[in-house]
Design brief:
The complex is a heterotrimer of chains A (249), B (390) and C (312).
Chain A lengths: L1 E10 L2 E11 L4 E5 L6 H8 L4 E9 L2 E2 L5 H6 L2 E4 L11 H8 L5 H14 L1 H5 L10 H13 L5 E5 L7 H18 L2 E5 L3 H7 L2 E6 L2 E7 H5 L2 H8 L12 H4 L1
Parallel strand pairs in A: 3-8, 3-9, 6-7, 7-8
Antiparallel strand pairs in A: 1-2, 1-4, 4-5, 9-10
Chain B lengths: L1 H35 L1 H27 L7 H14 L1 H8 L8 H6 L4 H10 L1 H32 L2 H21 L1 H4 L5 E2 L11 H25 L1 H11 L1 H6 L4 H27 L1 E2 L6 H15 L4 H26 L12 H16 L15 H16 L1
Antiparallel strand pairs in B: 1-2
Chain C lengths: L2 H27 L6 H19 L7 H25 L4 H30 L14 E2 L2 E2 H23 L1 H11 L1 H6 L4 H23 L9 H16 L4 H26 L9 H13 L9 H13 L4
Antiparallel strand pairs in C: 1-2
Helix pairs in contact in C: 1-5, 1-8, 1-9, 1-10, 2-3, 2-4, 2-8, 2-9, 3-4, 3-8, 5-6, 6-8, 9-10, 9-11, 10-11
Chain lengths: 249, 390, 312
């Protein structure tokens, strides 16, 4: 669905990604993991036209989307949930959802927002509150709901679990699996909680120093103890000690 | 290596724009000399020298230290008003003439000023002493204003500071306009002329003196740039956190920069007053004494002292061209009753915009400087990392 | 109504509009708009030209002044601001670019004045717009109409920002341009609209101001320190703060000069511009981020806390 070929990008003079090639298959979760500073967030920013792309190709459903401003990408059905600043703190929850559905006709946006409050009941409770007053987990829920507002074909999720209590982080990541299973959305998930993300993911990329170190099935990466140990801090073999989703609920 | 070759390309390009500008300046000056005579060239030179000092002082504060100095006129006024109000009074008091609140009015009514001028034009000693006192007073009041502005400059950030300085510059001008005993308000004050002693060569002498002063300031700032203090200024500008982590006292450095810069600008203001022989408060507008220097600085290249000289010279010549040839070239505007002199504003506006859009680093871009030669830095770096990796 | 209060109200309303425009432009495009000065002057010359050549009351030409101000804003956005924003220019560069624009506009204004003087035999360099005013309810109409204009305009602006989809999108873009872009909002259009409204507010402010003080080619140039003062007094990060700041700065000058000259004598008049500036400086020294930086909620809490603290 999304194809990145020999991408070089960064911020101004600072280059972060070097000749990076990645392919995101349709209807699955592609997980991008890697140590801090590997360029995971820059990858998303490059897709969204926020970082400076110096060379390389980015194709979405066969069309080049390189250097398109982000609002045009939104029109093509890509939605992006940044790590920081992923809600409009000064707007109410309702306005946040409305803004996320900016491209939809008014009536449809309203309906969709209602669906979101059904899907994430916590939002209904706080619908008229400023997003700034929500807790970290609630905010993340709102951010995901905002990403879903316009029925995206592809969702880019940046470090959903950061700053969240482990139990809540667990919950948020499980929600991502539900998005794929129930709504059939293609997802590019950048995650620090590498182990959990790889468990729910289909395809995986390990990014190190701006380049791809591993590409393949997510489960396969978990079976590479050396890579897991060196770059992801996963010491035990993958099969053990997986807290169950039900348990955390 | 790639970076080295691009650096060399950049360097040749740089050299070209500098050389081009210098050649153009020399050609223009020769042109003025042959068509309009020496006085025209001297007028350009004195304008250049006064504004060069002010622009270099602005560059010290804004270009080196990163303070948004939108109140340059404050320090210029401090110097100009101080030289207008104090040294003449001192001399008058010494000579037993009235030097009180009515002094300013007396001078413009030729009641005190003829005696003062006579005294100065009679003695080399006295003239020199008077000039010296003028400059000291200007420098002191400039330093005072600089220190005063440094107080809020520590607390306020960026725009808040720039706008506050701008507003108070205007206020000071209005104070001079309204408080007659200071510099005569709307009727001005005469300043005794220490250069009268040169007789017929007075004009040439003033021009040379001010020009020398500008060269001195240039030499001083050039030395300062490569000194540890100069590097500390740029450190504060580029990253306050890392500067203070490296043990630099940011408050002290910003204060020093403001005090030195304001002192230089005040001296320029004082020199200008001595050159014109009078102070009229309303002449010290933010347009001429803050915004013009900003335009000069941006054209010259923020952060480079040599660039300031080029920037001031190029624009001074362009302004003079418009003033001198306004009727010949833009006379057609007169058909609608329009005075072509307004084109000076158009020119300055267009230069500011043009520089920002097409020449963002100015005529002489700031050079990245290193305390040690690059090869030495590289070897230290490689050794350091080598040790770490082992 | 006391004369100082009448003129003060007009002047303060004008400053509120202008300072609001400065704040809006700063919040949306990080640009401190120096060209507000000449845009305000042009607003004045629009209503002047209209009243003299077109006839009728000056108020008929206020909408035109707004439109022309908005047009000047759009030119500034597409010609200068947009390319610089794309280049991620720093604040000082953005600010200086508008200074260049302002100087060009200033020269145009001066030439226009020359033209009016020469070919129309008018005296546009010292204009008292109040002679074109009429009387309403025993006072000059401007005293009633202009504060009303300011209130209606600012209310409309508020409703636009809160109630309409594009208005909310504007607030969203101002707060978080990245997320707004990802949501499908075209920031370009938001910024352009900000320049239309900001430029229009400048022109409206200048037009209103000329009903209180003498209109000259440097009307805006002389009053821009106060527009800026109002904006930074308000804190630069809230449109309402900027509007309030402009109003307070304007009223302080008129009230201050009136009461102080009663105490100290008429010489105070010459130093009138110092009064609002001192107020601004004092506020900034205590609260470096202006009115918006004052912890209002905490202040109120403390006040009530003390009242409720009877339990000892």
């Amino acid at each position: 669905m999304l194809k990145i070929n020999k991408l070089n990008s960064g911020y101004g003079k600072l280059q972060v990604l070097y000749d990076l090639s990645i392919e995101i298959p349709e209807k699955g979760i592609t997980v991008v993991v890697g140590p801090n500073g590997a360029g995971k967030t820059t990858l998303l920013c490059s897709i969204m036209g926020i970082a400076d792309v110096s060379s390389g190709e980015v194709e979405f459903q066969g069309n080049s989307i390189r250097a398109l401003p982000s609002y045009l990408l939104a029109r093509q059905g890509i939605s992006y949930v940044p790590q920081m600043g992923n809600v409009f703190a000064e707007l109410s929850v309702r306005d946040n959802l409305q803004m996320a559905g900016y491209l939809l006709p008014t009536a449809k946006a309203k309906k969709k927002a209602e669906q979101m409050t059904v899907m994430f009941p916590v939002l209904k409770k706080f619908i008229d509150r400023k997003a700034a007053t929500l807790s970290g987990g609630e905010r993340r829920m709102l951010a995901v709901a905002m990403g879903l507002m316009k029925d995206p074909k592809l969702m880019l999720l940046d470090e959903l679990s950061t700053d969240l209590a482990p139990i809540i982080a667990e919950k948020v990541i499980s929600e991502v699996a539900r998005l794929r299973d129930e709504l059939g959305i293609t997802i590019l998930l950048v995650e620090q909680m590498a182990k959990r993300a790889l468990e729910i993911g289909d395809t995986a990329y390990l990014l190190v120093s701006g380049g791809v170190r591993f590409a393949g099935k997510a489960r396969e990466l978990l079976n590479e103890p050396e890579l897991c140990n060196m770059y992801l801090g996963i010491k035990q073999p993958a099969a053990q000690n997986i807290p169950s989703i039900e348990g955390s609920r | 290596m790639k970076s080295q070759s691009t650096q060399r390309n950049l360097k040749s390009l740089l050299l070209n724009s500098e050389i081009l500008a210098v050649v153009a300046i020399l050609m223009a000056l020769t042109f003025f000399l042959t068509t309009r005579g020496l006085p025209m060239v001297l007028t350009i030179l004195v304008d250049f020298a006064v504004f060069a000092i002010i622009t270099m002082s602005l560059n010290l504060e804004t270009g080196f230290t990163g303070i948004p100095q939108f109140g340059r006129v404050l320090a210029v006024i401090a110097g100009a008003f101080a030289v207008g109000a104090i040294p003449g009074r001192l001399l008058a008091a010494l000579m037993g003439l009235p030097a009180g609140l009515n002094y300013t009015i007396d001078t413009v009514q030729f009641q005190v000023s003829p005696e003062l001028t006579a005294a100065l034009s009679g003695s080399w000693m006295l003239s020199l002493l008077f000039l010296f006192i003028c400059l000291v007073i200007a420098a002191l009041s400039g330093a005072g204003i600089g220190w005063l502005t440094s107080r809020p400059a520590i607390r306020l950030r960026e725009a808040y500071l720039g706008i506050s300085l701008l507003a108070f510059g205007d206020f000071l001008m209005w104070v001079g306009h309204n408080w007659v005993p200071l510099v005569g308000g709307s009727t001005s004050v005469f300043v005794p002329d220490p250069f009268r002693i040169f007789g017929g060569a007075r004009f040439e002498a003033v021009v040379i003196a001010i020009f020398l002063a500008a060269l001195l300031v240039y030499a001083y700032l050039n030395r300062l740039t490569v000194s540890p203090f100069g590097r500390a200024l740029k450190m504060v500008r580029d990253n306050e956190v890392s500067a203070s982590a490296a043990g630099k006292d940011i408050v002290k450095i910003r204060t020093q920069s403001l005090v030195i810069g304001s002192m230089l600008a005040a001296i320029a203001g004082g020199l200008y007053v001595i050159y014109t022989g009078t102070v009229t408060a309303m002449g010290y507008s933010r347009l001429v004494w803050t915004f013009w220097p900003w335009a000069f600085m941006m054209l010259g290249g923020i952060g480079s002292t040599a660039g300031m000289l080029l920037g001031v010279m190029v624009l001074t010549i362009m302004r003079t061209l418009i003033t001198v040839y306004r009727f010949e070239v833009f006379g057609f505007l007169m058909a609608w009753g329009i005075n072509p002199l307004w084109l000076e504003f158009t020119l300055m506006g267009a230069v500011i915009i043009g520089v920002i859009l097409f020449l963002p680093h100015g005529l002489v871009p700031e050079k990245v400087q290193s305390i040690l030669p690059a090869s030495r830095v590289n070897s230290i770096l490689s050794k350091g990392f080598g040790a770490k990796l082992q | 109504m006391a004369p100082w209060l009448a003129t003060g109200l007009i002047y303060a309303s004008a400053l509120a509009l202008a300072a609001g425009g400065i704040t809006l432009l700063y919040m949306s495009t990080r640009t401190f708009n120096f060209a507000h000065a000449s845009m305000a002057t042009i607003g004045f010359y629009v209503i002047y030209t209209g009243s003299v050549l077109g006839g009728g009351t000056p108020y008929r030409y206020f909408p035109l002044a707004f439109l022309i101000g908005g047009l000047l804003g759009v030119i500034c956005y597409y010609g200068l601001n947009r390319p610089l924003l794309k280049r991620r220019a720093v604040e000082i560069t953005l600010m200086m670019s508008t200074l260049g624009y302002d100087l060009i506009l200033l020269s145009v204004i001066q030439m226009y004045c020359d033209y009016l003087t020469f070919s129309r035999r008018l005296f546009p360099r010292r204009v008292s717009m109040s002679i074109y005013d009429f009387e309403l309810l025993g006072v000059s109409a401007a005293t009633i109409i202009l504060p009303l204009v300011a209130i209606v305009f600012l209310t409309a602006l508020h409703l636009f920002l809160v109630k309409t989809r594009f208005g909310v999108a504007m607030r969203a873009t101002i707060e978080n341009p990245v997320l707004a872009g990802a949501s499908g909002i075209n920031a370009d259009r938001v910024y352009m609209l900000a320049w239309v409204i900001g430029g229009g507010m400048a022109a409206l402010g200048g037009a209103a101001m000329s009903m209180a003080i003498t209109g000259t080619p440097v009307l805006g140039m002389n009053s821009i320190p106060f527009m800026f003062a109002g904006a930074i007094f308000g804190g630069l990060h809230s449109l309402y703060g900027g509007i309030l700041g402009g109003f307070v700065i304007g009223m302080t000058e008129y009230a201050g000069v009136f009461y102080l000259s009663q105490i100290f004598g008429p010489w105070v008049l010459g130093y009138r511009m110092g009064i609002p500036l001192l107020l601004m400086a004092a506020t900034l020294l205590i609260f470096p981020r202006g009115l918006a930086g004052i912890p209002w909620a905490a202040l109120v809490r403390n006040l009530f806390g003390k009242k409720g603290g009877i339990r000892v």
